[in-house]
Amino acid sequence: MDSVSQRVLEYLTEVEEGAEEVLTIKQQIVDLDSRRNRNREALNALKTEVSEDQEQLDKEINELRKGLKAKVNRLNEMQGKPELRGYSLSPLSTDEIKAINSLFKR
């Protein structure tokens, strides 16, 4: 082979190696992007599930607290003690807190 043919062959080899490297990197990007999307989907599913669990736990706790108030009052009544005052108070709702805060901002 003469020198011109050798240079053309070297050039073509370099171009092919560069093209393979570019294709490899593009495939890695596609793979990593796919993995990132799966992770995002899993995190969102987990966040939703945890949120639903939290709401269920809140409901159960509130129901138990309501039942506890009645049982404590019944126990006090059986023992001849006066009903506890202030024990049946409930916390302000989010809307009530917002309304109060808006009054303070005026």
TrEMBL record:
It is found in: Cytoplasm. The lineage of its organism: Eukaryota, Metazoa, Chordata, Craniata, Vertebrata. GO terms for cellular component: cytoplasm. The keyword Coiled coil applies. Its main location: cytoplasm. It comes from the Eukaryota. The gene is pdrg1. Residues 36-81 form a coiled coil. Keywords: Chaperone, Coiled coil, Cytoplasm. Signal peptide: none annotated. This is P53 and DNA damage-regulated protein 1 isoform X2.
